[in-house]
């Protein structure tokens, strides 16, 4: 189902399927796609949760916002985050347990604003988030990995000459604004990575990543995991040996599906304490 303001898809569970544990409202799983992701790609992940009796919302924010607007400190993704959370009220599913599945940095950049709204926005502070899965992210200031990701996206959109020009402009922008000038620019716009390292969300998190990922460094994910565990939060990891960026489900379908479903069930069994709003 589509909306003119937000290009999303919502899928409701088969009425014959019981909600997980049969003790709560049907959970709502929100999938935040990677840069350049198409809805049919997310549909494969959607099936994992729909088969568990969940309502699933699929959404991928514009890659231009993640690669360019965020790099210049423009918080355009915040509006997308707000519109996405408002869907829960539009469909009257705001009282259901909420579960996020976030892909790569494109998803994480949107997720950072969702977390901020959950803590600070009066309408959203009552939403009950039970857990988050991070697939192939988050990554820190990896210029080479970012160029690889952008090149993969541009391949299907532009000709070779224009693609090279955009890649050069992007690399210069990242080096200047996100590396050389970052001690200054972070004062008004911290990177998504630094924000998520000190995020106070108390619900459990599962990190799915690969040692063979050439876009998001496994070391970046491991540093994030270590930083989150220092706060005493429940953090789980599943490491894949040979799968490429956001390709773990394709390479290890059984392992991936089991990890997501088991984590979902555990989050529903042991929901976190509600977060306290800050107006």
What does this structure look like?
The protein is α/β, with parallel strands linked by helices and 279 residues long. It is 45% helix and 14% strand. The chain contains 11 helices and 7 strands. A 7-stranded mixed sheet has the order 1-3-2-4-5-6-7, sandwiched between helices. Strand 6 (205-210), helix 9 (218-229) and strand 7 (235-240) form a beta-alpha-beta unit. It is globular. The two termini are 33 Å apart. The model is unreliable at 273-279 (pLDDT under 50).
CATH superfamily: Alpha/Beta hydrolase fold, catalytic domain
Which second-level CATH architecture applies? 3-Layer(aba) Sandwich
CATH T-level fold name: Rossmann fold
Number of domains: 1
The value of Rg in angstroms is 18 Å
Number of strands: 7
The low-confidence parts are 273-279
Briefly note the structural class of the backbone.
Answer: alpha/beta
Count of helices? 11
| Strand order in the largest sheet | 1-3-2-4-5-6-7
Write the element-wise H/E pattern from the N-terminal end onward.
EEHEHHEHEHHHHEHEHH
Subcellular location: Nucleus outer membrane
Family: Belongs to the TMEM53 family.
Protein name: Transmembrane protein 53
Pfam families: DUF829
List the helices and strands and how they pair.
Elements: E1 8-11, E2 28-32, H1 39-50, E3 55-59, H2 63-69, H3 77-90, E4 98-103, H4 104-120, E5 129-135, H5 143-154, H6 160-180, H7 182-185, H8 192-197, E6 205-210, H9 218-229, E7 235-240, H10 248-251, H11 253-269
Parallel strand pairs: 2-3, 2-4, 4-5, 5-6, 6-7
Antiparallel strand pairs: 1-3
């Amino acid at each position: 189902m589509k909306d003119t303001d937000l290009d999303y898809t919502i899928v409701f569970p088969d009425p014959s399927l019981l909600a997980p544990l049969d003790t709560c409202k049907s959970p709502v799983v929100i999938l935040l796609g990677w840069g350049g992701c198409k809805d049919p790609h997310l549909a494969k992940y959607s099936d994992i949760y729909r088969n568990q009796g969940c309502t699933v919302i699929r959404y991928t924010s514009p890659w231009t916002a993640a690669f360019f607007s965020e790099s210049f400190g423009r918080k355009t993704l915040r509006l997308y985050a707000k519109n996405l959370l408002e869907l829960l009220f539009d469909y009257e599913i705001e009282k259901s347990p909420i579960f996020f599945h976030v892909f790569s940095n494109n998803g994480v950049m949107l997720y950072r604003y969702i977390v901020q709204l959950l803590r600070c926005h009066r309408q959203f502070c009552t939403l009950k988030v039970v857990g988050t899965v991070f697939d192939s992210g988050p990554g820190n200031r990896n210029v080479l990995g970012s160029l690889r990701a952008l090149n993969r996206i541009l391949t299907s959109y532009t000709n070779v000459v224009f693609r090279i020009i955009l890649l050069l402009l992007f690399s210069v922008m990242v080096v200047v604004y996100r590396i050389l000038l970052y001690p200054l620019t972070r004062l008004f716009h911290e990177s998504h990575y630094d924000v998520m390292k000190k995020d106070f969300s108390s619900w459990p998190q599962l990190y799915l990543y690969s040692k063979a990922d050439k876009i998001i460094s496994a070391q970046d994910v491991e540093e994030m995991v270590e930083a989150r565990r220092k706060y005493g939060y429940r953090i789980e990891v599943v490491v894949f040996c040979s799968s490429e960026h956001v390709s773990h489900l394709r390479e290890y379908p059984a392992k991936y599906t089991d990890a997501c479903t088991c984590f979902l069930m555990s989050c529903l069994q042991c929901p976190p304490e509600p977060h306290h709003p800050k107006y």
